[in-house]
Design a protein that fits this description.
Helix content: 25-40%
Number of strands: 7
Strand order of the largest sheet: 1-2-7
Distance between the termini: 61 Å
Structural class: alpha/beta
């Protein structure tokens, strides 16, 4: 009687845990999901971080985000996931961008654009338009240093997406087959367990 050859154990992925299901945490989980069995831990009952909503008394408020900073980072992430930012996000430019309320003063509308911001600062404090322009020029240089005009592997912003094990090569993938909720890219998502006693803190991971 022949003895069947011993079956090889199924290869298992190394595990990775992401603390926080905000935009950065979800992006990191998606990029790692091809090569890792990813679990996302979140202190709140919903994912999204600042991209969330508050519901109370029949009313709904967006808790953020207030700015779309570094759009190049978002565009690069969606490209790595096989799509585009334009296809996934319905972005609407606001004008004014926002309104500032200070007690005892009239509201101030802040518009997008360097000429508009300079004019606003000069109107509030003559001469400060030049100062805010210099600050914005410096911030522009810092931004370009972080994401442009340097070799990819030297870019500080992108280094977090390519480690560990060059997770930036990851694309769409499916995670382990169980009944835990999943992020769109396949990573497990664990919202906190809420105890019956509200005095006892529930999940405290993430931000």
């Amino acid at each position: 009687m022949s003895v069947p050859p011993a079956s090889k154990p199924l290869a298992t992925k190394p595990r990775a845990v992401v603390i926080g299901a905000g935009v950065a945490g979800l992006a990191a989980a998606c990029l790692m999901a091809k090569d890792y069995d990813v679990t996302v831990l979140e202190k709140n009952t919903e994912s999204g971080g600042r991209v969330g909503r508050l519901r109370d008394g029949g009313f709904l408020w967006d808790t953020g985000p207030s700015w779309l900073l570094m759009p190049d980072a978002y565009k690069r992430f969606y490209q790595r996931m096989g799509t585009t930012m334009e296809a996934e996000l319905d972005l609407v430019r606001l004008d004014p961008a926002y309104r500032v309320f200070h007690e005892g003063f009239d509201p101030v509308d802040v518009r997008s654009g360097i000429p508009e911001v300079r004019a606003l600062f000069d109107a509030l404090s003559p001469g400060d338009g030049e100062k805010v322009t210099a600050y914005l020029d410096s911030a522009t240089d810092t931004y370009r240093m972080a994401v442009k005009n340097v070799p990819v592997h030297d870019v500080f912003l992108r280094s977090a997406f390519s480690h560990p094990s060059d997770a930036g090569k990851a694309g769409h993938s499916a995670a382990s087959a169980d009944d835990q909720p999943k992020t769109p890219c396949g990573a497990e998502f664990f919202p906190p367990h809420r105890p019956e006693n509200p005095a006892i803190s529930g999940g405290a991971l993430g931000y």
